[in-house]
Amino acid sequence: MVSQTKEGSTELQRSSSRRTLAVFMQTTTTKHSEMMVVLSCLESSQVALPLDFEMLYMIGLGLGDAKDITVKGLEVLRRCSRVYLEAYTSVLTVGKEVLEEFYGRKLILADREEVEQEANNILKDADISDVAFLVVGDPFGATTHSDLILRATKLGIPYRVIHNASIMNAVGCCGLQLYRFGETVSVVFWTDTWRPESFFDKVKKNRQNGMHTLCLLDIKVKEQSLENLIKGRKIYEPPHYMSVNQAAQQLLEIVQNQRIRGEEPAVTEETLCVGLARVGAEDQKIAAGTLQQMCTVDLGGPLHSLIITGGSLHPLEMEMLSLFSIPEKSSESQSIDGL
Fold this sequence. Notes:
Layout: H1 6-27, H2 32-44, E1 56-60, H3 71-78, E2 82-86, H4 96-103, E3 108-110, H5 112-117, H6 119-123, E4 131-135, H7 146-154, E5 159-162, H8 167-170, E6 185-187, H9 200-208, E7 213-217, E8 219-220, H10 226-231, E9 240-241, H11 244-260, E10 272-277, E11 285-290, H12 291-294, E12 304-308, H13 315-322
Parallel strand pairs: 1-4, 1-5, 2-3, 2-4, 6-7
Antiparallel strand pairs: 7-12, 8-9, 10-11, 10-12
């Protein structure tokens, strides 16, 4: 009689469960909600553990470098048959080659076109082999990638999310209290013909409610010029990242436009703001000062974020921001205590 170890028996059971689930998902005409009941039952049994099913894994990478991935995320990533790196909504401080060396896996870059228009390529065979989709920050942070999960769900592909730090919570490093933030806004690069101001209404509403506003600054990666787009040429512009300086200058122009229209702007040149760069990295930088000062402060390379404060600050917030106060260069500048 051949003996079998407990580990070997468990692995055979797991393999059998995987095959059963894969066949079920490929052949059943059962509604997805009913299929999920089967999946839930299998997961809750002694046969398999939650991370043992072939599925799509959405893995957050954090904000700094290769080592910011969680232990769980790294373990899952290393056993996946394919690993995609989302490469258009944010970037780490290290490149793809450094990530591959640390993770021990080859990464497939997934640009906006592939994720939004060719998602089926990413999801292919994810019901019979593990596929990882890596996202800088958290998969449900600044950019949610909900569409990819909805597509997977419609195809009957199980998914699991492994969370990590995101700019949405890491901004607390400047000392402003997270529960005092209102709606987040995006500030995009203006062009000669497109200069949107609608997001400023959200800033105004936040200010009226005494809430801070996190401004996510634009990123241009693998973008085509209008000429190349029209001519169908796959020629892309160099990556371009909005700085706090550029964002502040655009905001001040909106303030001026509102004054010209006879409106009372919710933000002025003297509104207290916070500029942040490379949050989560060893060389992260934070500066607190007026919106006018944000036009010239040097925060170094990308990625940048900007916070427009909500007006009144808690004493602890004031004390924390004083650690990052921009040195006054003229008598017209106001200190943080005076704002």
